Amino acid sequence: MHPSSPSPAAPGGARIPPALYALTIGAFGIGTTEFVIMGLLMQVAADLKVTIAAAGLLISGYALGVFVGAPLLTAATGKLPRKAALVALMVIFTLGNLACALAPNYEVLMAARVLTSLAHGTFFGIGAVVATGLVAPDRKASAISIMFTGLTVATLLGVPAGAWLGLHLGWRATFWAVAVIGVIATAVIATLVPKDHGDRQGIAIREEVKVLGRPQVLLGLAATVLGYAGVFAVFTYIQPILTEISGFSESAVSPILLVFGVGMIAGNLIGGRLADRRLLPTLIGSLALLAVVLGVMTFAVRDPIAAVVFTGLLGAAAFATVAPLQLRVLQQAQGAGENLASSFNIAAFNLGNAIGAWLGGVVIARGPGLGAVPWTAAVVTLAGLAIVLWSVRREVRPAPRLAIVAAD
Fold this sequence. Notes:
The protein is mainly alpha-helical and 408 residues long. The protein is 77% helix and 0% strand. The chain has helices spanning 18-35, 41-48, 52-76, 82-102, 106-133, 140-169, 171-192, 205-211, 215-235, 238-245, 253-277, 279-300, 304-320, 322-332, 338-366, 373-396.
């Protein structure tokens, strides 16, 4: 499938191509396996006889695998047609989850989690390129947001369902179920995603890597890291924020997180549609909104009703930035290296997650404390917004005028 090929969508880009649904199913499976371990930590720790802290490292190991694996696996599959690469990635994903389900000990489970994570960043990176090639030019951001809907639905439904399944049938049953999703996603991608026109065969890896040296691509990646560092500085510690500051019981946290999930889905789709109309204003506006929401949360979390409202707004504002950030990097990498740049941006999201979680922990343990996490996160997101504004200024700055000296 070539970006310039006719879109399967109806005139005007109104109909959603079936291939986009296939990508969404894959995104749902990957999103579920990334976060479902959060609801299985106690069962895993008890069964494998490790501490809760050690079980928690299964989350960190996965994130590190995404960050390192996204660019490396994208480079390794650089000469494969995109459809073939996506199918291969879903096979890796499925095998990784099967290995998790069968893991006899903690070390094997960690290795299986890392193996599974290798498919994550590359799938979303290449999938975003494929998604934009399936639709009309004025619907590229919407296509990205539709694919990422699988990730948001996984957070809203897949993770709680996986946790419930693990509670009643054991944690291994959850990974068996996710492996089944992987088989289904592999089949629908192989069936519905159209074949490439051989456009990837002529792109050498050195040409793809060169794109990463473009200043605008680097600025886009930096904006993604800082924007999402702000999100996860708060979201990582949302449970203690809601219980210790807002006054909710621990049992109330899960329903409140459903509000966050609904906000994610709404923000993701709205951000995609707005970015199709005007990319840069949407990117700037969504990051500014995210910074405002984070800043106001400093005060809102002290009131229970406001805390629920702003938890939903955080989900909406956070995911309204996803499609604009991804499309911005894709546009700046246009011509060659879209796959690698797109995968690097997925890695940048995960790096932001890790930095945000670390920063929030520092603020809690060594800084002003839990109540200061939201405004600290807002400052970080403002730094991401500043990078976008600098990037736009560099893009529109006129070339220096040459002085013309007229001879008498």
